[in-house]
Amino acid sequence: MEGSKKLHRDFQGNIILVLFLNAIIKPLYLLGIDRGVQNMIPPEEYGVYFTLFNLSFIFQIFADFGLQAWLTKTCAQKAEEAKYQYPYFLSLKGLLSLLYLILTGMVAFSMGFWNKYPLLLTLILCLQLINSLLLFLRATISGLGFYRFDSYLSITDRGISILVMGVFLCTPTLQPKITIILFTCVQLLSLWVSSTVAILFLYKNAFSFRPKFDFLKLKILLREGLPYAVLVLLMSTSNRIDTLIIPFFSAEKFNSSAIYAGSFRILEAINIIGYLFAGLLLPMFSKNIMQLEITAKLADMAIRLLLSIIIPLAIGFSVFSESIIPILYKNGSSEMVKTFSILILAIIPMSGNYIYGTLLTATGSLWAMNRIFVLILGINIVLIILLLPIFSIPGVALASLITQSLALFLQLSLCLKKQVVKFSISLILRTLIFSILTSLLIISIKFFLPFTPVNLPIIILIGLLFTGIAMVSTGMLSKKEWRHLYNETIS
Length: 491
What we know:
Elements: H1 2-40, H2 43-58, H3 61-64, H4 67-77, H5 79-110, H6 113-116, H7 118-143, H8 147-170, H9 180-204, H10 215-249, H11 254-287, H12 292-319, H13 321-328, H14 334-343, H15 347-363, H16 366-391, H17 393-417, H18 425-448, H19 456-474, H20 479-489
């Protein structure tokens, strides 16, 4: 019982910290810096960057091969063994990075990107490699239980990018110098600084960064990491395949990519919340996976808290999409508004996937998850190809909403089958009632208060107040679960 309480306290304290830090930095970067750059350069130029970035992102799995999730789990369960094997992990990481460059380069060449955009593609590939290294280092840090340091590290690269690019965006004489190449270089610099900080921290904690090559050990590591690698590849592909299909099946090509990118960016900004939950929960689930009752209670608390945050945001953005898009994008069109109003709702099932997918990863149910995402990927591709010619870009958003919802249903079903969570009609009713109350509130606000700069603070204040009341009254947020945190920090 005491172990369960301590686990809950660790989760609550650290999730508040990581959400607070990222609620400031990540949206500011995506909606201020990234959006600002898109508004400063031609739409087609950003569309090319967006397409190349997502192409490189999908193949990033070959630079990681599931090492992040596996390393987090290993560090959480067997810290000394992970420390001993770390030089071999680094060697494998280097070989996989080389494989990534070769494979991605070949695919990019076959698609004609190398000939048209050699410098930009090279920079993006370097960007992905350094980002992969940083995530690898952070996986080690969080697995060891240094949750607070990892929380600060999670915002370091974005913080540096905000400072540097903010100077260019806010200085009229420097604005003409903004290019997609400059933007990519600033991201490279930021990631390099963050990775250096992480390496120094681990070095002080007796981790060796001298690679060791033993092909037998590397073979074992590869074999054990294979299911993680396949899972990450399938998940990243199913989440990003729409961005690659659009230029080839849309008459507007990269202009259509730019339209979808506008909505996708806001989705990513909110999606960070679920990603942060998963990053914190994986080592906690892994440490306590043999105590299923404890992990089930933690998963229940996490899903209620996450959905309490995500549902109002998703519904609010969808309802007010006609007002939000023109404010964010000077080239915002009615098609972008429709796309955004549908796509942003996909964040709700995506958030559930983070919780239950992380729990399944901790239990080692990787091949079962792989089968789920093979099905999801196939359905997603078919839906995009069918819906894009009929509904244009909003059809792609609808395909994403359908497939993410199906993925949540299948992963939750797998959790129930493996008895790592219990079927809870109470959770379903709470979520349903909370969603209805939130929807009615937001629609009422829109009817009585037009979305204007003058009314915006009032809208946010009313939204926060009544959402808080709905969270407590429906039981999405339990006062009993959080009372100790209030006593320790406030009273």
